[in-house]
Amino acid sequence: MQIYEQTVFQLILHGGNGRSYAMEAIAAAKKGEFAEARRLLEQAGAELQAAHGLQTALLQQEAGGGQPVVTLLMVHAQDHLMTAITVKDLAAEFVELYEALKRQTAES
Length: 108
Fold this sequence. Notes:
The protein is an all-alpha fold and 108 residues long. The protein is 88% helix and 0% strand.
C-alpha cells in the first residue's frame, strides 16, 4: 500500500507542478515574454507527461487483474491531474491570444 500512496502523491505533485508552470506561462505571456511562456508550457507538459505515466501504470495494473484501491486521496489526485491538464490546455490558448493581440497592436 505504501508504494501505491507514493504514486498517488506523485500524481498530485506532478499535476500541481504542471498547473503552476501553466499559470506562470500565462503571466509571462501577459507581460509579452512569449519565449518564456512557451518554455514554461513545455515544462508544464513534461510534468503532466510524468503524471500521465504514473496514471497509465495504475491503469495497466488494474487491467492486468489488480484490484484498484479507490480512496479519497486517489480521487483527489485524479481531479488534481485532470484540472491541471485543462489549465495547461487553456494556458496554451492564452499565450497564443496574447501573442496575437501584441501583433495586432504592433500593426496598428
